[in-house]
Amino acid sequence: MVQDREQWSSTLGFILASIGSAVGIGNIWRFPYIVGVNGGGAFLVPYVISVLLFGVPLMMLELAIGRSTGKSVVSAFQSIHRRFTFAGLIIVAVVSLILGYYLVITGWVLAYALSFIIGQPMAFDMFTDSYLPLIFFLLSGLTVFVTVRSGVRKGIERASRYLIPVLIAILLFLVAFSLTQPGAVEGIGFYLAPDTSNLTDPGVWIAAFGQAFFSLSVGMGILLTFGSYLRKESLFRSGIIIAAADTLIAILAGLIIFPLVFTSGLDPAAGVNLAFVTLPSAFIRIQFGMMLGALFFLMLFAAALTSAVSMLEVPVAALMDSYDCPRRRATLLVVAAIMLLGLPSALSYTALKFSVFGMPFLDLADYVFGTIGLIAAALIVAIVGGWFMNRIRICAEIGGCGWRQRVYMALIRYGVPAVLLVTLAGSLLRGAG
Predict the structure, then answer these.
(1) Percent of the chain with pLDDT over 90
(2) Burial, 139: exposed, middle or buried (Cβ in 10 Å; 0-12, 13-18, 19+)?
(3) Three-state DSSP class for residue 201
(4) DSSP 218
């Protein structure tokens, strides 16, 4: 019953939890790298346009569907029309499959944090040549299980109220330290020096579209689920706050990473190796490196944990709504299934080196589910919500049906799907290449 549904204790709790869902591992190490290789400061122009014109409207749509129906993804789509039940199941499946390998990376972050705390940082190759990644995968799954089992207020909201302020405090401290390093000017130059010629490159715009949807975690059903626990708050204001906080944290992360990388004379274009190979090397080479490394990976773990908790809530809430399953039992069943789904990814970076067609299973899962699947899920939300949900209900949730709402509906029905299709095509072409 809707009246028995859990709710956020306050707007602040909801916003912090939503920021936690958006700010993840990818924001802190992927965003700075994407900016650096796509025109520096100039990349922020298409990125901010993408966030405001496409990311925030899709966020608002998810929140509107959730709050209007008071249900999680599958039940909400079913209430729009019974034929969309399967579409809701696809979104739940995608987010569950993403979480399966995301918990593996969360485990890596936890392992690195502990290694720096005890003053014995690990080489990534040595770490993944053992079965330690499997142990830390299980630990990360257990941590997420305990949090979500405790409920919306006592689990998700309480974790976000502690972890997000801690994350921001560590972030600001590390930014202040990094800007005092000898390589700060060169690092910031690589990161933010604008190359406006890149703005004419369609690939840069596609990268901006993809990063906007990836960074904000839209289309995963998280905000739809969170919206179902929401009272009458301004969706536009909440969406802008969440997007602004997410973007600001990502930008600040680059002000930590690149000054340290250039100070240590390492490769700033290390890409996916940046977090687990390049940065640990940088920390080892500088003064107070053990402390800084511990703080950095604790910050990264806070970001990973809040995102993982948010993802887990999607299938848990769906199981609770669809089968009237108690939260504790639903959480146990879902976590058990997700840990099994994530096991091949966990084993792909252990001594077993589990791979498919010569590619580590985790890398394949990241491309298939975390890239293609995520875009497809966002497209489903935009089409089902924009074209088949009652327009009056959407307008009522976002604030009436004036000209602004007509513009909004045009963006949701035409702009967002078009951009998602372009991003999907670009991702498929890059994968084929």
Answers:
(1) 67
(2) middle
(3) coil
(4) T
User: What confidence tens digit (pLDDT) does each residue in 78-125 have?
Assistant: 999 999 999 999 999 999 999 999 999 999 999 999 999 999 999 999
At residue 324, what are phi and psi to the nearest 5 degrees?
55, 40
Residues 55, 370, 102, 260: is their CA dihedral positive or negative? Answer: negative
The CATH architecture annotation of domain 2-432 reads Orthogonal Bundle (1.10)
Q: Length of the chain in residues, anyone?
A: 433
Q: Give the CA angle between residues 274, 277, 282 to the nearest 5°.
A: 85
What is the per-residue burial (b if ≥16 Cβ within 10 Å, else e) of 338-356?
Answer: bbebbbbbbbbbbeeeeee
- Over its C-alpha atoms, the chain yields an Rg (Å, rounded) of 21
Looking up tokens 């890398």, which residue turns up? 363
Token code pair at residue 187: 């690092």
Question: Which DSSP category does 51 fall into?
Answer: I
The C-alpha atoms of residue 351 and residue 329 are separated, in whole angstroms, by: 34
Instruction: Let me know if 196 is exposed, middle or buried by CB neighbors in 10 A (0-12, 13-18, 19+).
Output: exposed
Domain locations in the chain?
A: 2-432
Q: Across-strand partners of 359?
A: 356
* Residue 341, C-beta contacts closer than 8 angstroms, at least 6 positions apart: 96, 97, 100
Residues 6+ away with beta carbon under 8 Å from 429: none
